[in-house]
Amino acid sequence: MGPESEVQLWQRSLRGDGSAFGQIFDEHRARLFRAALRIAPTAADAEDLVAATFLELWRAGNRVRVVDESLLPWMLVTLNNLGRNAARARRRYRRFLAALPQPGLEDVALDEVEQLDSQREAVALLRALPEKDAAILALTALEGYSIGDAGAALGISAESARARLSRARRRATTHVTASTITTEGQVS
Question: Tens digits of per-residue pLDDT, 90-108?
Fold first, then answer.
């Protein structure tokens, strides 16, 4: 008998087999961590998102949507949703902190500021898109899934996924152009 498929491992884990769930974790942890690094402000936050994604996988049970014999697309969508929730919580926390008296500013290296700015721009772009448009863009452009597989992960047809991807690309272009005009005063 050859190695078990991911669907078979998932079925075993649904029956309470922790080692099967562990194999799924070992298979997808690194990929999810890479995806989490794109949306989380720190590596520690990315680790937390990965852990929360696996917790949601365990809790979702039979509601998990398997795409092309893989749990990964469902987990990537879940990770993205958890990342959005965490970002909202961070914004609320920042607003709270902004209401408190501010300490003196500390020096920050210029390259760190530039890196943070580019990460913020990418996150702002994804946040500016509707949730499913951002998800389809992330699954296809960042994760390398086909339009059909990305659509299946989101529970929409390949045709709807194609339309959403096209709309997301148009909106992303508009967002980048508007951002360039706003920050530089002119289109570059």
Answer: 888 888 877 766 554 454 5
CA terminus-to-terminus distance, the chain: 60
| Ranges 5-9, 73-77, 93-97: which has the least confidence | 93-97
Residue 83 · residue 138 · CB < 8 Å: no
Q: Is 67 helix (H, G, I), strand (E, B) or coil?
A: strand
| 1-102 fold | Rna Polymerase Sigma Factor; Chain: A (1.10.1740)
Please answer whether residues 172 and 125 qualify as being in contact, where contact means their C-beta atoms are separated by less than 8 angstroms: yes
Least confident segment among 28-32, 73-77, 157-161: 157-161
Q: Which CATH class is domain 105-188?
A: mainly alpha
Nearest CA to 167 among 140, 186, 187, 143? 140
